[in-house]
Amino acid sequence: MQALSSVERGYDLLAPKFDHTPFRTPETVLDATVAALAELGPFEDGLDVCCGTGAGLLALRPLCAGRVTGVDFSTGMLEKAREAHPYASWVRADARALPFAGGFDLAVSFGALGHFLPAERPALFAGVHRALRPGGVFALPIGTPPPVTSLAHWVLLGFDVAMRVRNLVWRPPFVMYYRTTPLTAVRDDLEAAGFTVTGVPGRFGILLARRA
């Protein structure tokens, strides 16, 4: 049922069990992000873009002295996030049209880029840029692509091919691709949105984008 649904409906259905699946952001990625950001603070208010059930709040909370907010377009995911993190604020919105302006010092997003086609990234990044105060930072961990000789490479390629075939023959589409977000292309889109971008070397390929 999830696979034949829209992205929004699919995540509404998945929400009750999402934290028990491999798709939930692992602690290693959250910890690496906190470590990369710790020296750039202090931060006041933080935003988790495409927050899902709220795992990213575990990274925002120790970094931000003020309020922390999650935004997602799945009602089901937001309901689980509210249960797990009652101290936070939650907003239902499409990340391609974020309803914020200059209210945050730090934004993060974990594992969501595959749900946006490359042509949609400029709107996403422009919205994050608009949501940040001058000097604000957007942290975007992106997994390093596995080598072509690895099993993981072919598994991800096979998944993307299967998704493209599914979206050709079935509506509504379910956008989720693993091979549409190379680091260089994402960096270029961030810079086009007005960010100054630096990278943190390591397994997760964390991009740090600062608004001037």
From TrEMBL:
The keyword Cell inner membrane does not apply. SUPFAM superfamilies: S-adenosyl-L-methionine-dependent methyltransferases (SSF53335). GO terms for biological process: methylation. Transmembrane segments: none annotated. The keyword Methyltransferase applies. Keywords: Methyltransferase, Transferase. CDD domains: AdoMet_MTases (cd02440). Residues 47-136 form the Methyltransferase domain. GO terms for molecular function: methyltransferase activity. PANTHER family: TRANS-ACONITATE 2-METHYLTRANSFERASE, TRANS-ACONITATE 2-METHYLTRANSFERASE-RELATED. This is Methyltransferase. It comes from Paractinoplanes ferrugineus.
